[in-house]
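Q: Give me the 3D complex with flavin-adenine dinucleotide.
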Amino acid sequence: MSLPNTADVVIIGGGVMGASIAYHLANAGMRDILLLEKDDFFGQGATGRCAGGVRYQFATEVNVRLSLASLPMLERFEEEIGQAIDYRKCGYLFVLTQPADVSIFQSTLTMQNRLGAGTFWLDGDDIRQRLPMMGLEDAIGGTFNPKDGTVDPNSVVMGYIRAGQRLGVNALTGVEVTGIQTGGGCVRAVESNQGIISTPVIVNAAGPWASLVADKAGLTVPTALGKGCMVAMATRLVHTVLNRCKHPSDGDIFVPIGTVTVLGTTDIPVGSPEDLAIEPEEIDLLLAEGEILIPSLLQHRPLRAWAGIRPLYRPATEPVIADPGCGHHRLIQRVTAVHDRRIRHERCCEGPIEAAELRPLRHQAHGVSGDDGLERRADDPQAGHELGGALPRGSHRVVGDDDRARIQEQSHDLE
Ligand SMILES: Cc1cc2nc3c(=O)[nH]c(=O)nc-3n(C[C@H](O)[C@H](O)[C@H](O)COP(=O)(O)OP(=O)(O)OC[C@H]3O[C@@H](n4cnc5c(N)ncnc54)[C@H](O)[C@@H]3O)c2cc1C
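A: Here is the predicted complex, encoded as structure tokens.
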């Protein structure tokens, strides 16, 4: 389809958020929806670079509720949307190594199960029995939910794009929004490298680029961009998502995806959504930490490494949803994670968004990120179970230059 001169709504960004919003608006009966993606393909931003983890295990009630509302939708995805998404309920095991974490995770587990999440407690011996090949001598307990797992993010994106197109969504790639025209407190038009589109409504679904897009309308969306690096090993080394928690907020995550294992991830503050270069130290850190958990790790072949930028929202006092105060002419701004899409979008479609309920998701001072891309407080027990902190003394292993060169070379595959 070609670029129209007008649209009832223009969605900027063809990642999982934009694709889902487009589909859900169309499914709710809206017409004349235009989705613009600057890249040549949909889903090449954070969505195509994420680990695809979906889970019920969260530390805050609002996140658990979002999961309870949205993960069942992934189960019905193929039936409803017509696209298989490889939803694997392989379970998600948080392994605790610090006594202080035990009571925190146990109270979190109580909260999760009160809401109906179905999370189990395992003691250290249970964990070692289940995973005898792992270096889990220091495991003192953990939580496991068998319904947590992974999906293929690209299939989710394309499922929504195609389902939206069937409902009349005009979804275009290679169209970069370069400006936003406003007047009288309302958005008026979108300027792009292909032409200008008049529209009364713009949805900013630009993920890590959200603040740059908002800036074009003279608005501020404060973001804290965090680069996450991951390495794919050529062997399936685990059969459940394994997240080993260490203090203060670092950890290692292993994600089984088909025949490979994705090992991650770092969280390094960056200044731009294009800052995707991977430093050798990041690979060293991932492999060295991974080797603690899987002593045979380096006997397996690394396939590639890549980085993605987490679109974290860092508010000062602004609400998540910015309404320029012009009736239905709203500029909706959001920065969120894959598996939250349904409930938030339903609210977009149905009317005013209940900002109060989403408020707990807002980034507090000095928040940190988790593997799902949601920001959390630094004292959140499920915050930042990822790499990024210092290695335990004596545990750092220098990875051979050959390994590093091979991984770095392969890391360009996705950049
Ligand atoms: C390393 C890593 C691991 C992660 N793991 C998980 C996980 O396990 N589970 C989970 O739920 N989440 C995870 N996340 C978070 C998840 O990837 C993101 O929350 C999600 O993909 C955000 O989707 P989005 O559509 O908002 O952004 P994106 O996918 O980045 O989409 C934004 C799109 O907007 C386009 N765009 C930007 N500017 C313009 C413009 N001017 N004109 C037109 N188009 C534009 C971009 O090209 C891009 O395609 C992870 C993230 C990272 C980085």
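A quick observation: DSSP finds twelve helices and 21 strands in the chain.
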